[in-house]
Design goal:
single chain; alpha/beta; 4-stranded mixed beta sheet; VOC family protein; Glyas_Fos-R_dOase_dom
C-alpha cells in the first residue's frame, strides 16, 4: 500500500457496501466477521474487517458497535479522476448513482475535462472524471 486508503466505519452495512463497491469497481471482496475474529461486542455476522482486493480501488470497511459513530461524509470527496478509461468511469458514475444522488451530472466542462459528482447509497461523495477523448 503506497497511499492512504479510506477505512469506513459503517452502521451495520459494511457487508452490503463492500459487496456493492466490489461489483461497481470489479474488485474481489474479503469479509471477516466478528465471530471469525472472536469478537463478542456485536452480532456474530457483523463485519469486523473487510476490504476490496484485486481491483482499481482500495477501500476498507467495518461495522461499528456500541457508541462508536458511523462514517459521515461532509466536505470530502473520493476522486476518481483519470483512474480508468472514460467508458469505465462513465459506468462507475452510473453504478454509484444507483440508489444514491447525483450532485452534478457527468458533463464536459468549458476547459475540456469531463466530470461529475455523486453521493452513493452508502453516503460516499465521489468525483468522477477524465480528460481527453471520450471512448463511449
Amino acid at each position: 500500500m503506497t497511499a492512504p486508503t479510506p477505512y469506513l466505519h459503517l452502521p451495520g452495512t459494511a457487508r452490503d457496501a463492500l459487496t456493492f463497491y466490489g461489483e461497481v469497481f470489479g474488485c474481489a471482496v474479503q469479509l471477516h466477521t466478528f465471530e471469525e475474529f472472536g469478537r463478542t461486542d456485536g452480532p456474530p455476522d457483523a463485519i469486523a474487517h473487510g476490504y476490496l482486493v484485486e481491483g482499481p480501488v482500495e477501500l476498507f470497511a467495518a461495522d461499528v458497535t456500541g457508541d462508536d459513530p458511523p462514517f459521515r461524509c461532509e466536505g470530502l470527496m473520493f476522486a476518481l479522476l483519470g483512474t480508468s478509461a472514460p467508458s469505465v468511469l462513465r459506468s462507475w458514475f452510473r453504478r454509484l448513482a444507483e440508489g444514491g444522488r447525483v450532485v452534478d451530472d457527468l458533463q464536459t466542462r468549458p476547459w475540456g475535462a469531463t466530470d461529475g459528482q455523486v453521493v452513493d447509497r452508502h453516503g460516499l461523495h465521489w468525483l468522477v472524471g477524465f480528460e481527453g477523448q471520450d471512448d463511449r
